[in-house]
Amino acid sequence: MWEVAEELNAMLVFAEHRYYGESLPFGNKSFTDSKHLNYLTSEQALADFAILIQHIRKTIPGAQNTPVIAIGGSYGGMLAAWLRMKYPHVVDGALAASAPIWQFQDLVPCSVFNRIVTNDFKKSGKGCSESIRNSWEAIKRVSSTGEGLQWLSSAFHLCSPLKSSQDAAALKAWLSETWVNLAMVNYPYKADFLQPLPAWPIQVVCKFLKDPSLSDKLLLQNIFQAVNIYYNYSGVASCLNISHTATKNLGEVGWYYQACTEMVMPMCTDGVNDMFEPQKWDFQAFSEECFKLWGVRPRPSWITSVYGGKNISSHSNIIFRCLCSSSFPWLLSPVELEKVGVVPGSWEARRLTTEMEELG
């Protein structure tokens, strides 16, 4: 991005999403209740970006008639694609990297994403995904006693000791999210997007997870060594906090609210075709949790209604590119690939097809 911008004599503009970072419309009250959070939507964010682009064109010399390309990855990639779709008179094209625009309703099976995450670990080391799969029952057995809970707290260097079966469940949820996060940032270079990490962090993690047949405690000690790469690669953490899986300035609270309103992405696991504990997608339970947290109910069909779901062939100049193997549940057909900017037979199209074929 930096190199291409310099080559094209282009200006790079990083626009902060409302309710993230320092862009808090109600200051410290922004997250107090759903009344103040009512303006946190992707549609509002897109409108912000469109107005910002128009302002830049009016106020910066030389920018008036220059083309604009929206760029983003993950949720930012979704926004880039949607910005081109909704504001084609403002944005001339979009590069949407690892953008899961089909992870809604029943556009793809709810199991696909976690199968792909599992495939990342399976490819990165023999016995790796199997060790993680076996760890859930190991945690269950060890945590069945008070002594076992104390051992887990010590073995994982937790900041707050585990005291109940609910705490053990929280530990497992924290581990699950850690594996998913690792897949999403499995870059071929050092990065600190979620946490400071080495290049190809899953390969580094899998070095500790070679033998899934170990006894419970030995296996879980290796699991700790693996997650410690994610949480303490820099070596400065004195303990691990299972209430956090990313850097504090990432804006997790805002994303959780969006997930409870518009960004409703069905996810499920079966423990056979993936390395996670079996868990069905339970929309009703999810809705109740959202209402308890925010006083709102999720709208599962809103995103597909607003942005079109799979019916995007009328749009143009959008390149959907996959930068890592953790985010392929939105595979496009050859016709759709061509119309939105990914050419059938290209490297991107072949890689997408190969990944999905490996998943069955």
UniProtKB/TrEMBL annotation:
It holds the Pfam family Peptidase_S28. SUPFAM superfamilies: alpha/beta-Hydrolases. Keywords: Carboxypeptidase, Glycoprotein, Hydrolase, Protease, Signal. One of its GO terms (molecular function) is carboxypeptidase activity. GO terms for biological process: angiogenesis involved in wound healing; negative regulation of systemic arterial blood pressure; proteolysis; regulation of blood vessel endothelial cell migration. It comes from the Eukaryota. The keyword Mitochondrion does not apply. Belongs to the peptidase S28 family. This is Lysosomal Pro-X carboxypeptidase isoform X2. It comes from Alligator sinensis. The lineage of its organism: Eukaryota, Metazoa, Chordata, Craniata, Vertebrata.
